[in-house]
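Wed. Picked up where I left off yesterday with S8 family serine peptidase. The coffee machine is broken again, so keeping this brief.
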Amino acid sequence: MKRKRHGQVAFSFILCALLLLSTFLPQFALANSNSDASISLHESSEAVSNNVETKIDKKLNDQFNKNETVTFLLKLKDQVDTNKVATETAKKAKDQKQTAAKTKLMKRSAVVSSLRAKASETQYSIKTYLDQEKKKGNVEEFQSFYIVNGMAVTGNKQVMDKLAAFPEVEKILPNETVQLSSNESSETSIQPTADTSADTTSIEWNIARIEAPQVWKNTGIDGTGIVVASIDTGVQWDHPALKEKYRGYNPANPDQPDNTYNWFDAVSGQAAPNDNVGHGTHVTGTMVGSEPNGTNQIGVAPGAKWIAVKAFTTTSGTQVDLLEAGEWILAPKDAEGNPHPEKAPDVVNNSWGGGAGKDDWYRPMVQNWRAAEIFPSFSAGNAGPTNGSISIPGTYPESFATGATNSNNQLASFSARGPSPYGEVKPDISAPGANIRSALPGSSYGTKDGTSMAAPHVSGIVALIKQANASLTVDQIEQILFDTAIPLTDSLYPTSPNTGYGHGLVNAYDAVSSIVSGKGRVQGQVVREGQDTENPTYQHTALTETYSNMTLPLTVQVQDNVSVISVELQYRASETAEWQTLAATRTAGDYKSGTYQAVIPADAVQVPTLTYHWRIKDYGQNVVTSDDYVVPVSPGISTGYYQDFESQPNGWISYGTKNTWEWGVPAFAYGPGKAASGEKVYGTNLKGYYDNFANMSLMMPPIVLPEGNAYLQFKDWYQIESYDYGHVLVSTDQQNWEQLSRFTGDSQTWTERQIDLSAYAGQRIYIAFNVSTNFTNVKAGWYIDDVALSNTPLTTANIELEDVQQEKLLARQLENEPQTNKKAVNPEAIKPTEIQNVMAPTATITQAAVQPMSLPLGATVSVLESGRSVITSPADGSYGMIHPAGEFTLRAETYGYYSTDQRVNIPADGTVEANFTLNPMPQGTVRGTVTNKQTGQPLANATLSLIEDALIQPIQTDENGRFSITAYEGTYTLHVSAPFYQRQDITITIPANGNIEQNIPLQPFIGYPGEIGYDDGTEEDARAWNTTGNGWAVKMSLPEGKNRALITAGLFRLWDDTWPVPGGTAFQVAIYDASGPNGAPGKKVAGPFNATALKNGQWTVVDLKSEGVVVNGDFYMVYIQQNAYPYTPALAADKSSRSAGHSWQLNNGSWSQSPKEDGNMMIRARVDFEAMTPVITTPKDAAYTNQSTITVEGKATPTTQVNLFNKGEEVATTPARKDGTFTVDVTLQNGENVLTATSSTVRGSTYPSEPVKIILDQEKPELTIIKPAEGFKTNQKSVTIEGKATDPYLAAVTANGQKANVAEDGSYSIDVLLNNGENKFTVTAKDRAGNETSKEVTVYAKFNPPAIENLQPAQNVVIKQGDTLTIKLDSEPGISGFFSVRATSTYATATATTSEIVLIEQGEGHYVGTWKAPKGKVNGAEIEVVMRDDYGNESRQKAAGKVYVNVKPN
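Structure written out below (tokens, as returned):
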């Protein structure tokens, strides 16, 4: 990543960053991508002179200036050729007819024994000397190594100087401390956190990508029986994904492992495996990890066992540590230090390395591993994207270096690039290395980036291969990996293998299958029915002149409606010579329209003429032959020659390695911009930079100089990297060249040049403009114009002849300087390549038999079982692929045709042919109208597309909302969008040769504008990535209370033109949802869309209204960098505000939160917040009123128009206030009213609010009181009032406020309490609208019985038969009463009891009654009086006196 701070360029990382999350200084680092410190290299490994001082590294002198004793390393001259030892041992084993296993052990033993013997022999005198010095106290300790024949010594300077004099010693080097650094890498701004929410039951994406699961499933191979090793930071041995895979694991004693031969701590000597960093655990997990229950399948070879060496910690590690580690790997040692080669691993993973360049210090170690059949797997390093940045030891030819890809199979930006300084294609291969989830200490899991993460994929695959065939050698395994890799290319690396991806993406299934079942080839042709009846056409401008004994490239532009099959050039040197035929090669264009070139050899071009013609054949065997062209041939050009390049420059050719010389109009933005005169020039690349490792020459026609003065005059413009050179060279034989002029740096402008050729008077000479480059940076190159040969010198020329002798002196000085990563081309040693790969000036310019009964198709042929596929050649429909042997199903498919399947049996080491004829699919049409769902009005300019068919361009509706799309039959998702409408996806089926009508109503999005952002509007910093495809995003959260929004625009603040330089304006915009782990960016919702940056201090606004993206929660506005730094705008950052925690970064396909210190990335989103559906707060639902006009209150979106409806009919409108409330009066209808509200704008309205029902009732209830009757009297303390109330909306009936029980028919009843005396009751019937009717009733109550006073007779009365007895008493007036006479004696002969005799009121309250004595005797009858009032009260009393009839009382 790049950054700009306060107008000054500041890189957010160091471009030469090394391999790991943490960098090792000064030499080696783990290959994690989170490193931003470059690593220094050892001194050059070129031969050291016998001078003692030259053997000692200068750094040691500095160390001795500070310390009395220092640890230093001795490398001895005599190193064992272990490859030779292994080869001889293998031959011996073969002669002895040993098994493969025995042969491997013999080789390993022989390698170890030869190394130990060599060390013992060559170190003897040195050890003797060191023993003596140790006794003297001049040496503290020393240690012998055999993995590299060398020693480590801790002693004083005198000892070191003495050792330098030993002839056995080649060089003395410091034991530099290797340290971890916590700085971040150039591309990974933070280490991605562990994805704790990952699906632990699934197979990790990277494991699936290399097809390891197919190996487990289809072959049963999982690495069982194979041992992998790592030199790293150690391993948490009891991690659940690794514990049972540790070779030292003992199931009988699971917590007490056997660490002998299985673990070595070269740093701190701990007996048990440990990892205080995490890097080594992560790497080992990728090789073999999985938990016993099958979860967390993070490893490639889960059946393999692991061992490990700890050589790095968070504090330090040394080169001594690495030597110890490498020696232990070759033959793990027992407690006494004895090596055991039988315990060596099958593969060792090395996710560490140093800087780029050439340093052989560790090369013997790698060579010895390889000789012992230990596969040396290395990471390529993380110093990408610089060319030539692959790191040591991965640069060695004997190392197998792995680059890193992301989930899109794109090369990770941090992945180091080749080529190797040893001339090898490096990296060797690629594997997933971005966002790799694996084991971490603490029995946890997490993701890391880096080539450190890529290399263990290869190590794991090697384990699978070794299980499939344990007898395979390292060489054979390497070749299998190459042969079965899936080639990967891109715009920077268009062919494979290349120096970015190597041989491609490693593939476990093909690698193992090639061993288990062998490999075969399937080939054939995919065609369609038809005939090619049209002839090809061509354009060719014949030469007007050429030159003898000069290689002559000729070009022709050819076109055909189907395919050009071949182009030939036929020529002859004279009329009598036989025609010679050359096959022309296509140099530009494609199989339908291209430029073809054929090169006539120099010896065929002779004075006086050359005759040639073209012969062209197309796919239909139509042949066209051009006219004969007769070209005059002359010896050469001479003084007076002038070439301004405005027409085809006859006789000019270019050739050489990485030749990009072009004739034409300069078109590169960073080139000269225009020709020196006219329009055309010759340049090293008219549209871009020249290449690394180029040695390309542009040669003039031969020059025949007359006697006298002669001058080469030309104009040039150049921008050549300081380690690269341009030369003007001269030769008399095209073999031996002399430098005439030299160029490097930057000319700034077109410059006139002159070179004196007078020294070559009278000779035929050749002039070449040569550019030679190294492996570092590239520039715009060299442009040539207005070339002349003159016998008159120019007086205004910028130069004549540079001081070549001074340059030669500089070259010799360069040879003696220490080498660095940027090694300059030695200008003195530059020589053009032989004349080969010749290109004519027109070679890069493209202008627009029996007839076969079919025509070729560009199609894809896939193997369904393996998923492997290949694309046919569109020129002739042919295809071919290498595939594991066996029976498979092939499918041929292409756009617009029905796919066809075919079963094939691919033979091992054989070829099978499978041809396909595909039938075209019929088409159908979908038509319809897009309308506003609310208004029904047609929508013009709505956009419709078929998601499944991107080749059908999106269309827009016309002014009537109509659309029509024609597509191949099938089921599609019809995507419809329009500005300010909610987009819609509809599943449709288009019939074959038919039409369907599909009308689409779109819901308008009713909203009001808003903006979301988390910066303060002022930029203090800016950032840019090194490579394309990376970016930033800001998480946009809808404010509280806002549930939906339509995204209308993205706002991006870009830095001004001051940085980067030259900068750029192109970038892309996308929208993601927040469905990723822990709310990270998840699914891409829309985009990417191209955008152009404003770099004037203003916000760049990217209009997104037409996309119709509606969000319901968090979303991300994403900035994607479209061009590599520095040809890109830089995204500004607000660093003065506190980090809002909303900024995220996209790096190599992986999302992570941006570091807080990066500030708030200045990205905002403009939205229309959805207008809320109004809410009616007053009146409440189901309300009743007797008022014909009511006030309706509610809430709505501010500033929108609120529309009130009564049963769907609009009855009122009012604007919502700024606070979101509204109030409006509404007139009601009699009976039920249903009120709803909508918010509306010019585009439409929201959905209606929840309905509010209200009843307008202005009629009073009818009321009757059935009982009690008016004036009812009672002696009860309560009375029941009954009656009936009639009203459709009756609410209640009350009596004096007390609620009555009301039946469905309106009958009511209520028990009320009475007071003594008069009780008045008001009965009221009330309906829900508040209408009421009242009636009254009076009830009288008396609770006390009447009193009886002065009752007579008070004494016994004796009377005779027929006499009258008078009964008297006083009581309440107006009541009734009676009395009775009851006989009490059993001797009475008269009737015992008389009937009731009424008492008559005589005077107020005085009552009298009479009784006539009967016959017979009545002996003491009792007189009982009863008094009753109107209320039902009754009093009874017996008179004091009794009555006797005809009997005297006793």
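Quick read: The two ends are 141 Å apart (CA to CA).
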